[in-house]
Amino acid sequence: MHKAFLSVLDLEHDQLDACLRLAQRLKAERSLGRQAPTAQALAGGHVALLFEKPSLRTRSTFEIAVRELGGEILDPSRDAALGARESVADVARNLERWVSAVVIRTFAQRRLQEFSQAAPDLPLINALTDEEHPCQALADVMTLQEHLGALAGRRVAYVGDGNNVATSLVQACLMEGVSVGLASPAGFGLSPAIMAAARAAARHGATAVQVEDPRAVLAGADAVYTDVWTSMGQETEGAARRERFVPYQVNAAMMALAAPGALFMHCLPAHRGDEVTDEVIDGPASVVFDQSENRLHTQKALLLMLVKDWCAPQKALPFSP
User: Fold this and answer.
1) Which residues are catalytic?
2) How many domains does the chain have?
3) Which one of 9, 28, 160, 305 is most buried, by most CB atoms within 10 A?
């Protein structure tokens, strides 16, 4: 497979399926601890974490993932990591001599592209950019599988800002046969180009629509997903955004419009009282902490796929039958 995972769309359909299967198996094997079949998979290797944005879930789960696979973490200071002292390309060319993989959390997607072009043989994972959040989407789809079973024909309603999380979510869902309805205020939805690229990867008849009225996408939805109204780097827009997004708050009345038993999803951190109420995020429909947990398992699977190529068709997975 490609050495760089910058977008969900970098995966072929069979690779996405294989990643999710491997993540499920890794989750089941985790209780074995150091006796797990993958406990020494990255032994002797290092994974560099280059983070320019703050993180709890992403950093924690990648650090745990690398260590549970037997590897070591390299965590350069922020000012030395991505172009502050030298070019992004030169950082990449140095790291490719030392480490087994790099995980980057930054602002512009083009910085990841520049890094990958400079060191094309070095496995690279997008841990969030302003444009996409593919690691989150893998965990989201895994969580949907756990709670809903087979995904073909299912429907997800995304209510809120058309941001990086929404982009990666619609990509992953359509690739797994899940239809997505996105509801955002005018001017805050996904671009036609993003929607067209996601639709081109759809399977099993999955569709994606974009509207302003949340009620138009909630009816029959198996899951309702939202995210913060103001993402990192948009703090100066907070007051104006809040005014526009108040009608998009996911509360009990909005959840009641979805299918009976619909799940509530959020990538976290949540701004309680803004995009979601306590009643919903703490209620029985909420699977937000399952999503958070599954970040660990999908990211372990990604590392194994990129570094060890353990999902190649010709290579058996490192598990007993």
Assistant:
1) 105, 133, 136, 227, 267, 295
2) 2
3) 160
